[in-house]
Amino acid sequence: MGVQERRARQKENIREEILDAARALFVKEGYERVSIRKIAEKIEYAPGTIYLYFEDKAAILERICEETFSKLAQKMHAINADPSNPLDGLRRGLRTYVQFGVDNPNHYIVAFVQAKQIPRDAQPKAGERCFDNLRTAVRRCIEAGQLNCEDVEEIAQALWAGVHGVTTLLITCSFPFIEQNRLIDRVVHILIEGIRKR
Amino acid sequence: MGVQERRARQKENIREEILDAARALFVKEGYERVSIRKIAEKIEYAPGTIYLYFEDKAAILERICEETFSKLAQKMHAINADPSNPLDGLRRGLRTYVQFGVDNPNHYIVAFVQAKQIPRDAQPKAGERCFDNLRTAVRRCIEAGQLNCEDVEEIAQALWAGVHGVTTLLITCSFPFIEQNRLIDRVVHILIEGIRKR
Amino acid sequence: MGVQERRARQKENIREEILDAARALFVKEGYERVSIRKIAEKIEYAPGTIYLYFEDKAAILERICEETFSKLAQKMHAINADPSNPLDGLRRGLRTYVQFGVDNPNHYIVAFVQAKQIPRDAQPKAGERCFDNLRTAVRRCIEAGQLNCEDVEEIAQALWAGVHGVTTLLITCSFPFIEQNRLIDRVVHILIEGIRKR
Amino acid sequence: MGVQERRARQKENIREEILDAARALFVKEGYERVSIRKIAEKIEYAPGTIYLYFEDKAAILERICEETFSKLAQKMHAINADPSNPLDGLRRGLRTYVQFGVDNPNHYIVAFVQAKQIPRDAQPKAGERCFDNLRTAVRRCIEAGQLNCEDVEEIAQALWAGVHGVTTLLITCSFPFIEQNRLIDRVVHILIEGIRKR
DNA sequence: TATGAATGAGTCTTCATTCAT
DNA sequence: CATGAATGAAGACTCATTCAT
Question: Looking at the C1' of nucleotide E3, which residue has the nearest alpha carbon?
Answer without folding.
Answer: A46
